[in-house]
């Protein structure tokens, strides 16, 4: 089984937990995910199965969209609600004007320090492993981009937001840093990812729904149509002779896509054969060959 399935991840599970459950439900070992979600976070977690795991390289810098809540009044060691408070809570009542003014500092390209409880490595060791042992974790600021950061509503001690960010951005750090800027401490109370690249929450399914479909023999119906993948690449349908050349890794002429740099090559409507890259003119070389006819 080769395809992409969008999971609506529940809170309390790691991304790896979800992959393991999907392997059991679908009875397939070759499954990966496109972009880790913290255990407390919910929402879009795309899973790639079979040969389509090879497409993960095209999503390493995928844009992501989130909705969530920032809690003001105290910070935590993990920068989110799963952590331990770093100090006692303080009386706080923030206004929408204060939060809006603070949020403006985080729009655009900024320098951001990742949370100490993160997968960032220090001398080859993930920072969270050092933090769990209560060792000093010193991470260098990195450049990230917050393309949109909208404050949806504000109460006395919390603010709801929507954000669209480039890959590598930590909304936990945004919440923590906003608390520092406002002088009251803050942490990320909740987070829901609503999109990763072209994958949206509307196309997501719960693990329970997928398990039910698998028991009914209809799990295939929940996979995305392969022509919706990588919409930035044009699609072309190969004839039998061209498909045979592609399956053997040989270059082919695709005159109908004379201006594209990379293309998706199909056999029929659903069989994704390859991602091909232009060599010169109308000559394309199959960069990634996805052999087999079991593409969902």
Describe the protein in words:
This protein has 296 residues and is α+β, with helices and mostly antiparallel strands. The protein has three domains: 3-62 and 198-224, Pseudouridine synthase (2-Layer Sandwich), CATH 3.30.2350.10; 64-192, Pseudouridine synthase; 228-289, Archaeosine Trna-guanine Transglycosylase, Chain: A, domain 4, CATH 2.30.130.10. It is built from six helices and 16 strands. The strands form three sheets. Strands 1, 2, 3, 4, 5, 8, 9, 10 and 11 form a nine-stranded mixed β-sheet that branches. Strands 12-14-15-16-13 form a five-stranded mixed β-sheet, with helices on one face. Helix 1 (15-26) runs parallel beside helix 5. The longest helix has 12 residues, at 15-26. It is elongated, with a radius of gyration of 22 Å. The termini are close together.
Report the mean per-residue pLDDT as an integer. Answer: 91
Give Rg in angstroms.
Answer: 22 Å
User: Which second-level CATH architecture of the largest domain applies?
Assistant: 2-Layer Sandwich
Question: Can you tell me the CATH superfamily of the largest domain?
Answer: Pseudouridine synthase
Oligomer: single chain
Name the overall outline.
elongated
Q: What is the class of the largest domain in the CATH system?
A: Alpha Beta
Strand content: 25-35%
Total beta strands: 16
Distance between the termini: 7 Å
Main sheet summary:
9 strands, mixed
């Amino acid at each position: 089984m080769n395809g992409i399935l969008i999971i609506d991840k529940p809170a309390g599970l790691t991304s790896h937990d979800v992959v393991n459950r999907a392997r059991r439900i679908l009875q397939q070992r070759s499954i990966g995910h496109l972009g880790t979600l913290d255990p407390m976070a919910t929402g879009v977690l795309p899973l790639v199965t079979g040969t389509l795991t090879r497409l993960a390289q095209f999503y390493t810098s995928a844009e992501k969209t989130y909705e969530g809540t920032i809690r003001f009044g105290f910070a935590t060691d993990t920068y989110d609600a799963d952590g331990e408070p770093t100090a006692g809570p303080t009386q706080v009542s923030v206004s929408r004007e204060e939060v809006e003014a603070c949020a403006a500092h985080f729009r655009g390209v900024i320098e951001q320090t990742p949370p100490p409880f993160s997968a960032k490595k220090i001398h080859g060791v993930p920072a969270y492993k050092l933090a769990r042992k209560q060792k000093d974790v010193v991470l260098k600021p990195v450049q990230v981009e917050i393309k949109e950061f909208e404050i949806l509503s504000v109460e006395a001690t919390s603010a709801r937001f929507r954000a669209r960010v480039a890959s590598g951005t930590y909304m936990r750090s945004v919440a923590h840093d906003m608390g520092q800027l406002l002088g009251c401490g803050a942490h990320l109370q909740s987070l829901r990812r609503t999109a990763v690249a072209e994958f949206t929450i509307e196309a997501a399914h719960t693990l329970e729904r997928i398990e039910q479909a698998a028991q009914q023999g209809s799990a295939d119906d929940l996979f995305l149509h392969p022509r919706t993948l990588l919409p930035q690449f044009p699609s072309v349908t190969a004839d039998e002779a061209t498909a045979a050349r592609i399956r053997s890794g040989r270059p082919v002429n695709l005159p109908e896509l004379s201006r594209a740099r990379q293309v998706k090559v199909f056999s029929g409507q659903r069989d994704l054969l390859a991602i091909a890259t232009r060599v010169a003119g109308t000559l394309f070389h199959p960069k990634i060959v996805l052999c087999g006819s079991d593409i969902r």
